[in-house]
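Running low. Invent one:
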Amino acid sequence: MEKENKGKSKFWKGVLAGSLVTALAGFGIVGVATGISVIGRTVIESQVKDTEASKTGSDAVRTQVDLKQVDAKISVLQQIIDRYFLFDEDAEQMETGIYKGMLAGLDDPYTVYYTPDEYSSLTEETSGVYCGIGVLVSKNVQTGIVTALRVFPGSPAEEAGMQKGDIIYKVKDISATEEELDILVQEYIRGEEGSYVDVTVLRGNEEIPLHIQRRMVEVATVEHQMLPDKTGYVLVTQFDTVTAEQFIDAVSDLEQQGMERLVIDLRDNPGGVVTSCVEMAAYVLPENQHDGTILSTATKTGQEERYYSQDGETRHNIREPILKTAYSRRQTIMS
């Protein structure tokens, strides 16, 4: 309650100060400010009541969203927007914000809502061909720091002087740590072919500005070479739709060179398309073990998804959970 009281105190001090300043400009505007404060207090009091009601009886965390309560609060907020917002609202953008906010409330960095345009950009990225600067980046979910894991050979980023390990500090005037990684890449780093983007990187204690031209980049996600003792080495930098084919070609080439053992390097690999991983595993794993199962996952409801290899092909099926029906027990006595 102490925090709530402090919050209310700050709220009313703000309203009072705002009213005094506004009064110098005219009494008519004070009426508007008063109207905002009344609706604002209604929302706050409603939230306090909801919080107190949720605490009574049990401290257990609710596991389902109260859609009626959400609808009621959205309705109040919409009334405030309709009455006092000075500009035309973008309804589609507001709805997108609601959906994004809902999934952000799960507090899981790997659960994200994508708009159709964002999803299109994502599928473009995993195709292995896109218009950008040619650098593989990763974001630390704790610190927000964005790091260049790999700068592709011959890419615009390499030509501009970017190096592996550089910290992406700013893109234009946007702080890299304050943006979601997919938004940072899709909205600010990528763009039209031939256009330029200004990226500031940190290298040690040095701040380095880079002016990079965007071009079409075809990513070679697999590199390979033969090491001593007939040991084949394959580096897989990420899993795109083209990765499985590149991997199979690399292993085949090493086998033709007499490879007897194989090292697959997945360091700094950020992940990607699961079917590419399955096809790569199917190529090197025997089919006669574990019924050819390569990957099996299960949801919290018991639905099982299985990827497996059979007759030289990768296959996929989904098995629904077995429904359990309750029945009454009857005691049986042998006589």
Observations:
- Residues 1-44, 327-335 have pLDDT under 50 and may be disordered.
- The longest strand covers residues 196-203.
